[in-house]
Amino acid sequence: MPAVSRGDAMRGLAVFIADIRNCKSKEAESKRINKELANIRSKFKGDKTLDGYSKKKYVCKLLFIFLLGHDIDFGHMEANIKNDISSPKPIHVNLALHCIANIGSLEMAEAFGSEVPKLLVSAQASESVKQSAALCLLRLFRTMPESTTYAEWASRVIHLLNDQHMGVVTAASSLIHALAQHSPADYKGCVSLAVSRLSRIVTSIYTDLQDYTYYFVPAPWLSVKLLRLLQCYPVPEEPAVRGRLVECLETILNKCQEPPKSKKVQHSNSKNAVLFEAINLIIHIDSEPNLLVRACNQLGQFLQHRETNLRYLALESMCLLAGSEFSADAVKKHRETVINALKTERDVSVRQRAVDLLYAMCDKSNAEEIVAEMLTYLKKADYAIREEMVLKVAILSEKYASDYTWYVDTILQLIRVAGDYVSEEVWHRVIQIVINRDDVQGYAAKTVFENLQAPACHENMVKVGGYILGEFGNLIAGDSRSSPLIQFNLLHSKFHLCSAATRALLLSTYIKFINLFPEIKGTIQNVLQNNNQLRNADVELQQRSLEYSQLSSITSQDVLATVLEEMPPFPERESSILAKLKKKKPATVQALEKDDEKHKVAPASTENHIESKADVPAAPVPAPANSIDLLGLGAAEVAPPSSNSLLVDVFGGSSVTEEVDVNLQKFLFKNSGVLYENDLIQIGVKCEFKEHYGRIGLFFGNKTPSQLVNFSASVQADDVNGEVVVTTQKEAPAQIDGGAQVQHFINLECVALFSDPPALTLTYNHNGTPHSISLKLPLLVNKFFSPVEMTAADFFSRWKQLGQPAQECQKIFQAKFPIETEATKLKLAGFGLACLLNIDPNPDNLVGTGILKTKSAQVGCLLRLEPNKQAKMYRLTIRSSNTQLSPLLCELLENQF
């Protein structure tokens, strides 16, 4: 072809830039850019004869579009990166590596995942190229961790820790740390090399590492990276390596005691960064008493430091030290300092860490003092941490209660001080404890009766009082100051100030009173038969009043006594309060979990009892598990009990084989989260979808200190009748070490519309006991939706075309959440639809459009969501050419707004 002049070569780009500058509006600019992108995409895909000049021209246009702030998802491979990465000039290779790393797409990972490691371990590559290659590989690994572990290069990558160039070592440390977290067995050889390199750094003098010394601290960034890398593995078994590591850690602690070599803040920051990471490694090793105590003492000096960040980090690290048998006593010596910080600290996050540390250092010797201090602080605590503090006080008071009267007093004081933040788990728990302990029932009835006499009484106190007096009011009825009629009048004086749920509980208390105190039967029947109750707008209250009235009028006293006899003791299980705190702040319960002492409650009675619906205080466990109905209560979830649990709960019942009904609705608008969890295992998911393909990453975490062996995970797609094709990408290993996490990846292809997701079956052995779990994957049909933009004319034209009755599904339902337009838009977008603006004549109505993409067909979907703010209701209408899709989507979306 004829030669192209320099001016001609840039003419196309100059014309395009001029067109963009001449655009009068943002819409016109976007239209011109989209037109150009479509043209370039067609050239790159369809024109096999495209020459180098044309590629260069189009890449320059893409660069200009990118500089304008638009996302570019193609054209990278046409930029001649392969030529640059194989260039003999280091500057060209570095530019190519930086480009690959900055883009970091799947396309880049697949194209260069096998090329970049060669540069990293090449003897001919320069130090700058090795640095860039290490960081580039790190980005590619984070993009595709399941297929780019570089196991075949492991030994050669590890030896980069011995490289003479510190920049190469620093970059390689970041790469090896990420790879070691993913494939620890492949990179375990890095431990001895990391210890050796760390030793050379911490024992060096200023002149040894002059170019890598930052304000008199030798190579602080590399030191921190090496210390973090060593935390991926247990303490080295080789005596020489272990001794050298201990010597390094002692040297770091010693240097922190030396006078500072500079008054600059950079010096103290870098020195403290190394110190705190060294302390984290000491805590991780947890087998060197001398180091643990020294670390605790060093942290204690920071508790009153003028720097807020240092106080925060010191408290956080001491929380972990409190869980070690070697340093627990050393931590408790700082109790008064921590309590003082709780009272005087200005920063709320530091105050919260102080609460965490008090919780972690609590034991039988100091429980009453710490609980008292926490209750005192709770009166003025920040609202953001009150609920968590309530949970901690409730756990500590139960765990360390030598006298359960103290426990009852503490919980009732908790309700008085922070009633709004006392969750159901807490007040349910005190009732469970009282029912299971005969020695505290009379005291509990007397104490709650006295608390109910306060003029301002929190509703949670009414709930506790109603339940306990209904069961044990007879124990204090002999005192004229708490006679049956006085008890009833006291409770009924609170009745009209309470919510419907509490009033329902009080009605159950009243019928119990008829059994306990026949002498006030007439008074109570007058209340039950009052029109305010029998014609109450609340169906539950109306039904209870009618049934209890008939029960008290028709049945004999013997039958009434049988039906309304005292609740039996509850069976044992892990405390739901502790389980809730584990979900909120798992690290803060670490110290408690290392204590083997357990509190037991009385064994369950075998007698049959009947209790009114919603009155049994059954706090649900945190992990999704089989849902059963206990004594007429709604769904109360039950999980296998843990042999290591500290606190026991009142509902028993577990099975080695679990058919788990996971609430898949929580994955309707998101693609990641915890799918299932019990005391042994946690199953997390992370999903990706594009067109009619999907990939689900399953993450299995062993929550116990012992191995899960004979582990297998299989996905059964038989129940979807070939509508979803499932293939395994990466199998899970046959065993999971204690505290470890493994991965399992599966690929999906949506062939046709489906309603039931595939099933996941897990089998494993724990301490000789076989376990099996079967649950559904979070695969819903909306995951294969692609949003589609439309104009108002196009939307209503298509809406009319889909006017057949079979093509439409409509649902009218009560709003479950406050009607907020922006929040609803986010949900529709998370569902996979394009939320169109200025389409519907009514601005409050929302319009969504999308296409369901399957292998066999593509099905359009139109949605209109019309809120009625006055009635707090929604009307949802969905139209689709597939008559099965509309009702399926309506079922998924109903009551999600």
UniProtKB/TrEMBL annotation:
It is a peripheral membrane protein. The keyword Nuclease does not apply. It is found in: Membrane, Coated pit. InterPro entries: Adaptor_Complx_Large_Subunit, AP2_complex_asu, ARM-like, ARM-type_fold, Clathrin/coatomer_adapt-like_N, Clathrin_a-adaptin_app_sub_C, Clathrin_a/b/g-adaptin_app_Ig, Clathrin_app_Ig-like_sf. Keywords: Coated pit, Endocytosis, Membrane, Protein transport, Transport. It comes from the Eukaryota. Residues 665-778 form the Clathrin adaptor alpha/beta/gamma-adaptin appendage Ig-like subdomain domain. It holds the Pfam family Alpha_adaptinC2. Belongs to the adaptor complexes large subunit family. Adaptins are components of the adaptor complexes which link clathrin to receptors in coated vesicles. Clathrin-associated protein complexes are believed to interact with the cytoplasmic tails of membrane proteins, leading to their selection and concentration. This is AP-2 complex subunit alpha. It comes from Clavelina lepadiformis.
